[in-house]
Structure formats: C-alpha cells, structure tokens
Amino acid sequence: MTSQKTVKTRLYIVSDTHNKGPWPAKATQYAYRAPLPPADVLLHAGDITMTGRITEYEGMLEALKEADAQLKIVIAGNHDITHDEDYYKYFGVRLHRHGLEDLEKVRELWTGDEARKAGIVYLEEGVRTFTLKNGARFTIYTSPYTPEFCMWAFPYNRDQDRYNPAPATAKFKAPNPVPSWPQVDLMLTHGPPYKVLDQTNRGEYVGCKNLLQAVARCRPRLHCFGHIHEAWGAERVHWTDNSKHCVQVDKQQMLADRSVHLDLSKDGGDALKFGEETVFVNASIMNVSYRPENAPWLLDLDLPLAESSKP
C-alpha cells in the first residue's frame, strides 16, 4: 500500500449505450434515467453507438453534455467503427454501404471546442493524467481494443498480447502496454479480462487472458469495461489470495439512486486498499437483447491528492 494523501471522488460509469440516452425521469422502472446522478468524473467504456454513424454520435453527445460531471472520459468500442480509421478504410463499406462517413467530422465531434466545453474528453489507447477541481489527481489507462469478434472494429488476435511489455525477440510489441503498479489508478477498457464479468449467456468466458495478466500487474483501484452485456455487475478482487467478492445489488435502492452506488472511500467504512484490491465493473447499459435495462454504477473512491492541493 501507499501512504499518499487522498480525496473522496465520485465516478459515474456506463458502457454499451448503443445510441440510447437515459430514459425519461418518469420511467422509474429503469435506473438509467434522467437526470443522471452528479459525479466528479463520468466514464463511458465504449460502444457508444450501433455502427458509428455521425447521427448516432450526435445523439449520445447531447446526452453526455447534459450530464453533471466536471470530466467525461469516453473511449470507443467495437461498434464505434468510424473511430478505427484503419478498420474503416477497408471494412467501412460493409456496414455503411449507402454512404461512408467523414472521419474528420467524427473526430471533430469528439475532440472539438463544443465537446471540450462540455468536459468531454475522447481517449484512444494509452495513459493520461487528470487533475480535478476537488484536488484529485489520477492516472488512467484506456483501450478500445477487444479480441477479434465478427469483423467489428478495434480487433486483435487472441494470441496477440497488446497489454504487456514484450521480450526483445517478440514479433509483436504492444504499442501502449499497461504500466505496472502503482502508476495507474483507473483502467477503462472496452472489453473485460478473462473470467472477470465476461461470461456469455452460453456459459463461455470470452475475456482476454493477456488483459487479466496486465491488470494483475497494474493493480488499479478500478477497472471498468462493458462489451459482454449479460455479464453486467461488479466484483471486488483481493490480489493477495485472488479471492473475489461479488457485489450484491438492492434493486429498489438501485432504482431510487438511478444507479448502483458503492462507497469504497474511507467515509464508507470499507475503503478499497490500493495495491491490495481492485474493483471490477461491467457497466453495460444494454442487456443481451439490446434493451437498456441495466443500471449505471456510481462509485466513491479515494483518489490521490495533487501536490498543490496538499496542506
């Protein structure tokens, strides 16, 4: 463990919205409804859309602009095909046979002045550090890539390790390997690690073994993702013995809170121990039938205090 000073920070987490903004406030049978709970940081783990059309992005951008959060970090998923320029160059016509999108306009939507003014930050694969108004300074690793699946975007072969440093003799070297502990506080990937909230409705575990190796080496406070809709949920992993605790959900409280709320800060009485534990969250909003019936997650975590904020 580290002894650095921390500050309680609230994170709102969603994934796999596939064009669907929050249900209206009166739709109280759904947790994912307006207004979204306030947070310091909003995290979206990809699959913003169904096929990466500009009109689809515009709809979700409007929903994100309405969210009450200082910082809104978004990554792409395999369905957001126009964010993967190499993929779109060769395979875009397969899904956009009636007209290709302008990729420069797509990028401008997510990285231009309007998005920045709303606090939206679109990230590709790599590591970034942010400082918040509450004094928190955190480092996040992000990646939209997932093992190849039905010729969708951001693919890699399962035997290809894009998350761990490679030996000098390796044919493939990860361009952006995950740093080791204690360099990263949060991980945001589209896909899950192997056997961590990755089981399909057919009983198959489809997460990435190399990603699991990387997150075990990194030991972030939080790793959130989506991709496997039916594996929605959260687990708290203790690295000393690799034991898991599955988070139990009170449905009535979830609907009242418009999210599943977990307080893993010191104030909550059961603070997450950085370096010893990681909480994993599959935040897919869509269920396996592509209906937006899963709940968002709202987490309170103690994040590092920036040097300039320390008394």
Structure description:
This protein is an alpha/beta fold. Helix content is 18%, strand content 25%. The chain contains six helices and 15 strands. The strands form three sheets. Strands 5-6-9-10-14-11-12 form a seven-stranded mixed β-sheet, with no helix packed on it. A six-stranded mixed β-sheet has the order 4-3-2-1-15-13. A two-stranded parallel sheet has the order 7-8. A hairpin with a 5-residue loop joins strand 5 and strand 6. Helix 1 packs parallel to helix 3. The longest helix has 13 residues. The protein is globular, with a radius of gyration of 19 Å.
Classify the secondary structure makeup into a structural class: alpha/beta
Please list the strands of the largest sheet in the order they lie side by side: 5-6-9-10-14-11-12
How much helix, percentage-wise, in residues? Answer: 10-25%
Which value, in Å, is the CA radius of gyration? 19 Å
Distance between the termini: 21 Å
Number of helices: 6
State mean pLDDT (0 to 100 scale): 96
SSE run: EEHEHHHEEEEEEHEEEHEEE
Largest sheet, strands/sense/barrel: 7 strands, mixed
The beta-strand count equals 15
Query: How big a fraction of the residues is strand?
Result: 15-25%
Unreliable residue stretches: none
Large-scale geometry: globular
